[in-house]
Amino acid sequence: MKNLILITNSGSSSVRIKIFDNKLNQLFSGRVERISLLNSFLNYQEKNSRQKTINYTQGVKNHAMALKLLIEVIPQKIYDEIKVIGHRVVHGGEDFQRLTKVTPGVLKKLEKYNKLAPLHNPINLKVIKELQKHFNEVDHFAMFDTVFFRTMPDYTFLYSLPLKFYDQYKIRKFGFHGLSHQNMLDYASQKLKMGQNKLNLITCHLGGGSSISLIKNGQAFDTSMGFTPLEGVTMSTRSGDLDPAVIIYLIKDLKLKIDEVKDLLNFESGVFGISGLSDLREVLQAAGHRVKGFKLKRKFNDKERKLAKLALKIFIYDIQRYITSYAGFCKKINAIVFSGAIGNNHEVVRSLIMNEMYFRDKPRVIICPTKEEQVIASNILKLIK
Length: 385
Fold this sequence. Notes:
This protein is an alpha/beta fold. 38% of the residues lie in helices and 20% in strands. It has two domains: 4-144, ATPase, nucleotide binding domain (Nucleotidyltransferase, domain 5, 2-Layer Sandwich); 194-367, 2-Layer Sandwich (Nucleotidyltransferase, domain 5), CATH 3.30.420. Helix 7 crosses helix 15, helix 11 (280-286) crosses helix 12 (302-327) and helix 12 packs across helix 14 (347-354). It starts with a strand and ends with a helix.
């Protein structure tokens, strides 16, 4: 083993690492989930070994602690050979259109996007800085979720605001989860044995944050997330689509401050705002569905079960309305592809989504393993070879 690549992928309540060799063989993986919540857990696995789990009943406090725990379980023989580190960063705007080497100047420039992706970019940057402390003699690279959507035409990425707001301030739809949507395109191409330029897909990344994209002839055409990752479908704690007048009403009539509205829409809304539960596995359990490998030791009362069912219906309906609206732009949709922690792991969610949608020619459903880290590692290898 030599010249290993460590990839980080940090979300609002999770952090994953994967370590690859220079032939993209995965040698080690680890992830911490439910960060800042009770009953956090760490899963890790070395190649050709069984997965191991460590439970933290009192929770893992923050991402720095999660990284420390992950580093501690990396086998020494692998740790010593890490030579390059890649990071998933959610928002790169129009400034960052490709894989970028991390420098102090790049980090400084990226800070301006923290306010546009408050659930992710600040965490992404903290993770980068934290790992720079542990691996200060290796190169760090950032890959951006927004890059995949650079092919969207102007009439799908522009908002109907005076054009000066785009020209001067770059207010536009950027799109997110691009690494996952790219991976779904790659996977579907292999699965269907079709060239990417012939594929029309609806790709669904479903997790703590969720986004739906339309891919026409192998290129991103439209996507549910916009200027920030707040737009689109209902998510774990994010509101998704909202009449802009609601925000005006919250500020003008209900006297909420700007920061209070920002926190409300990003951290207190979505599935959590309806049900009081932010983890969809808990919502599914409270709504009466079995969740493989997950059982929370608590009982739900009638009100909690009712609200969980309502939150789940809203989540499912939002995804359905995006899928059906996108389907109308293609004569034939080759496949609907699911990925992400929810899309990949919960058959009951996929079934609920596919019910009550009608297509002239029913598309194939493809379940795609989440390989965002491999996409980053592949790009790094191309750059450093």
